[in-house]
């Protein structure tokens, strides 16, 4: 499951490891960024449903027990946003942020709408709670509502700015956050993107 | 998620040397608070009240969302930098900011608490808030234990402080949260509290502050 590098020789490749859960959209953001930059990495699976994030080995690496975690030689970085900013600074090929300050700000806004306004409100912990207290139907309704509101905000934000991609004709940070979230909305929560009123 | 606008909000004018920076802020919003704190740290002066919740207007450029605003300010106005140069320390600051802005604040914002109160029950509201606040602070305590100096990630005030200090204040004031299990965070908070930049950013000092 390690990504393939297309741009660097073996000698030039840094020894990167990514601790990831296959279904975690936060982990997914990190995988996209690594692939965009042509960085190969060792994939270390952490099964959240089995509680592997609490294993002694992983806890030593990240005492907060979150995925994703990036290991670059002796540097350990947790949190998808921190990982992406670190990668963008250390490996500047295929930059994740445009030079233009306004567009850069929009990318930050889009990323944060996903990571603060949407993802935390439909993650496993929250959904399990709602399902336990209010049932499965309510859980789905809640998730769809939170995601729908977030997508409405994003639609407004990106109106007139998007091109082939979120903020123009190049892939940037907004796309890296957006794509996994849209995928989750459609496949896990059966959100009908056409039914949203923008 | 940044606060939804309230009907009775007003805001603050911050002036830069070019006199074109406007901050739309709500006095009680911890997200607005972060931005006020950062603007004060970067030595922008406040002028007059205006409207809403963190939206920054800088000439022709409009930025909303507190994290985006702070990162924008960091790029455009590098004085009193809030992100350190060291890669690891930088990452820790961003991680701390993310914990606050993604794992904590969205879970105890008003709309979510109202939902919990209405659908699950009034007694659940407080326990839900406390659970998520506690989880976030536990993570931050672990993260910053080995990094903190006088401030969150060393002896200079940085982005982590800007997110942490308002969050601790809100947790204690609004949710009566007991911080005694988090000695590192308490110490960081005490150091931040006395700063003029923090004092000037306090909710009760804002033009729109009122007694609810």
Automatic annotation (TrEMBL), chain A:
GO terms of biological process kind: aromatic amino acid metabolic process
Family annotation (SUPFAM superfamilies): GST C-terminal domain-like, Thioredoxin-like
Enzyme Commission number(s): 2.5.1.18
GO MF, one example: glutathione transferase activity
PROSITE patterns reported in the protein's UniProt record: GST_CTER (PS50405), GST_NTER (PS50404)
Record key words, sorted: Transferase
Domain GST N-terminal: start-end pairs: 14-95
Entry GO CC: cytoplasm
Catalytic activity: RX + glutathione = an S-substituted glutathione + a halide anion + H(+)
Domain GST C-terminal residues, every copy: 100-198
InterPro entries linked to this entry: Glutathione-S-Trfase_C-like, Glutathione-S-Trfase_C_sf, Glutathione_S-Trfase, Glutathione_S-Trfase_N, GST_Zeta, GST_Zeta_N, Thioredoxin-like_sf
One matching Pfam family: GST_N
NCBIfam families associated with the record: maiA
Recorded family membership: Belongs to the GST superfamily. Zeta family.
PANTHER family in UniProt: MALEYLACETOACETATE ISOMERASE
Protein's name according to its UniProt entry: glutathione transferase
Annotated source species: Nelumbo nucifera
From TrEMBL, chain B:
One MF term in the entry's GO annotations: catalytic activity
Cited Pfam families: GST_C_3 (PF14497), GST_N_2 (PF13409)
GO terms under cellular component: cytoplasm
Domain of life: Eukaryota
GO BP: aromatic amino acid metabolic process
InterPro entries the record matches: Glutathione-S-Trfase_C-like (IPR010987), Glutathione-S-Trfase_C_sf (IPR036282), Glutathione_S-Trfase (IPR040079), Glutathione_S-Trfase_N (IPR004045), GST_C (IPR004046), GST_Zeta (IPR005955), GST_Zeta_C (IPR034330), Thioredoxin-like_sf (IPR036249)
Domain GST C-terminal: 86-211
Record-linked Gene3D superfamilies: 1.20.1050.10, Glutaredoxin
Domain GST N-terminal per the UniProt entry, residue ranges: 19-81
PROSITE patterns: GST_CTER, GST_NTER
Family recorded in the similarity comment: Belongs to the GST superfamily. Zeta family.
NCBIfam families referenced in this protein's UniProt entry, alphabetically: maiA
Name of the protein: Glutathione S-transferase zeta class-like isoform X2
Organism, scientific name: Nelumbo nucifera
